[in-house]
Amino acid sequence: MPLYEYYCQPCHGVFEELRPMREAGEAVPCPECYEDADRIMPTSFAAFTFRDGYPRKIPDDGTYWHLGQKVSKRVTGGRPNEHPEINKPKPKPRLTRGERAALNDMREVAAKGDLVDLYNNPISPREVKQAYDRRDVIKKGVPARIHKDMKKKFR
To answer: What is the pLDDT of residues 26-51, one digit of tens each?
Structure first.
């Protein structure tokens, strides 16, 4: 059944009613004052239409709707129900000045051969950043065995 709007003159109220089409022109009692109210043209209109497989709001402003949010382009690939404008990947966190200084210090210690992991395996200067990113335990100590990069230095 269609939804129609009615206007009540005594209480100046606008209300909606679901009515069969054959009864649309007949007066309806107002829910406030119970007087007969006449049908009026709709005061607002909102609708969606599908274009290119995506819902677009009418009047069309050239944008698409994805899961209730307005986007400028339609999704062309990727995971289902994810849109690159809505589900933006989080940027990789940048290192602070203190963290960069600590990494440089660890690289210097690793170059001397005094930096090891939890199991006393040596860490080369090139592996310091990866070990730091993995949150490995890094400590200063004597390695149980010499790393392949360090063998050249000790010969």
So the answer is: 999 998 889 999 988 876 665 666 66
8 A C-beta contact, residue 116 and residue 122: yes
Q: Residue 118 contacts by C-beta under 8 Å, 6 or more apart in sequence?
A: 136, 137, 139
Say if residues 125 and 113 touch (Cβ distance below 8 Å): no
Residue type, 53: G
What is residue 89's DSSP assignment? P
Contact (Cβ atoms closer than 8 angstroms) between residue 62 and residue 77: no
What span, in angstroms and rounded, lies between the C-alpha atoms of 132 and 129?
Answer: 5
Q: How far apart, in whole angstroms, are the C-alpha atoms of residue 73 and residue 19?
A: 39
Q: Per the domain annotation, does 105 fall within a domain?
A: yes
Q: Number of folded domains in the chain?
A: 3
Q: Is residue 31 part of a domain?
A: yes
Closest C-alpha to 7, from 24, 28, 23: 28
Q: Using alpha carbons, select from 149, 108, 115, 147 the residue that is nearest to residue 131.
A: 115
What is the pTM assigned to this prediction?
0.41
- Domain check: are 115 and 133 in the same one? yes
> Which residues are paired to 69 by β-bridges?
66
